[in-house]
Amino acid sequence: MAKYKIEWMERKTTSTGKNKADGDITEVTTNKTIQGVTLWEASWPNFKDLAPGMEVEGDYQEKQNGQYHNKTLFPYRAPSVVGTGIKPGGFKKNIDAVMEKKQEGIRQSQENKELGIKTSSSIRLATDVAIAEGNPTTENIRKWRAWFWSEWDKEDKDFPPFNN
Q: Shortest CA distance to 5 belongs to which of 30, 13, 63, 77?
């Protein structure tokens, strides 16, 4: 980023309808004049106010496009964190909030997964036991399912040989 003085400029409209200003600029610190520089209206919010003799802060870029040298002065823009819509100082705070929300989602998924396993396993086990007993009725399956559901959360230390 440097300061430039607009020496002269001529406003034009391209064949595609884009407004631009062609002119010469001088870098203030080195007093070096650069001729044939373009300032695009789309890049400069104050394009209508630009005039010869003004000093502006910007980034000068020169690119070669085949046989042409495209010399462009872009306005200076403070660096920002791309894609987050926040200022750089708030980046850490935003990441912490996102991580906390992510962990809450993971915890909720784990709870849902455990409930799903408990539900399907208690039904399957109740059906297996009812069939093994030779009494696969709805009432018997419900009785066994209720038993498996109530016993599901007990720990190994509640049963022999782990309770010694």
A: 30
